[in-house]
């Protein structure tokens, strides 16, 4: 049984937990204390507001434990704000958070809340079917080191990528009916 924690400081937590509940061998749980983070096999950092999540990470003194577990190989997936939290560089913000993934992101890259949109793609590496994508004040990746594997671009911008044990998506698979990205991440957890 693999225990996947969803960082439960702010944002779309229960939606990820519901999706993970579809897989055998996966035990999802919300985590927000150090001892809970130490006890999981993998972690999802959900969408929400990266400034708020980043502030709570430092207020609750969680950055150190999460960062060291990621650097030791724990699988992690950042969706939307979670992507911003993982990035080493943020082009339009002087704040930095976990700084573990060799990507440079543009926060709110698609504009304001009103510019949120959905689309769908085919991406055979993730799923045989069409994958719906929901973008809500989403960031995108403007620069990635060669260690980063680009999984998906939309109009030049990288919106899904992976670096070893780290996965980042600009969009919110937990807000759709589709399980492909959760299945892919469960696969990363062994
Ligand atoms: N715009 C938000 C941020 O940068 C992310 C939005 C989201 O997670 N849906 O924090």
From TrEMBL:
Q: In which pathway does it act?
A: Cofactor biosynthesis; pyridoxal 5'-phosphate biosynthesis
List GO terms (cellular component aspect).
cytosol; glutaminase complex
Q: What is its EC number?
A: 4.3.3.6, 3.5.1.2
Q: Where is the active site?
A: 80 (nucleophile), 172 (charge relay system), 174 (charge relay system)
- So where does L-glutamine get bound? 48-50, 107, 136-137
Q: What GO MF annotations does this protein's record show?
A: glutaminase activity; pyridoxal 5'-phosphate synthase (glutamine hydrolysing) activity
Q: Is Lyase there in the keyword field?
A: yes
Write down the chemical reaction(s) this protein catalyses. Answer: L-glutamine + H2O = L-glutamate + NH4(+); aldehydo-D-ribose 5-phosphate + D-glyceraldehyde 3-phosphate + L-glutamine = pyridoxal 5'-phosphate + L-glutamate + phosphate + 3 H2O + H(+)
State what protein this is by name: Pyridoxal 5'-phosphate synthase subunit PdxT
The organism is Ruminiclostridium sufflavum DSM 19573
């Amino acid at each position: 049984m693999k225990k996947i924690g969803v960082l439960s400081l702010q944002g779309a937590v229960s939606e990820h937990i519901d999706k993970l509940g579809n897989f055998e061998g996966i035990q999802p749980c919300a985590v927000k204390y150090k001892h809970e983070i130490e006890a999981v096999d993998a972690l999802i950092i959900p969408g929400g507001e990266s400034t708020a999540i980043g502030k709570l990470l430092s207020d609750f003194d969680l950055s150190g434990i999460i960062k060291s577990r990621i650097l030791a190989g724990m699988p992690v997936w950042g969706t939307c704000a979670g992507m911003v939290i993982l990035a080493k560089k943020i082009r339009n913000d002087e704040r930095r958070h976990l700084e573990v993934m060799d990507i440079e992101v543009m926060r709110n890259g698609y504009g304001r809340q009103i510019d949120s949109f959905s689309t769908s793609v085919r991406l055979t590496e993730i799923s045989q079917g069409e994958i719906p994508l929901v973008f809500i004040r989403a960031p995108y990746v403007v620069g990635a080191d060669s260690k980063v594997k680009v999984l998906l671009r939309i109009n030049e911008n990288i919106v899904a990528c992976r670096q070893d044990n780290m996965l980042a998506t600009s969009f919110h698979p937990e807000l759709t009916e589709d399980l492909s990205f959760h299945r892919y991440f469960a696969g990363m957890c062994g």
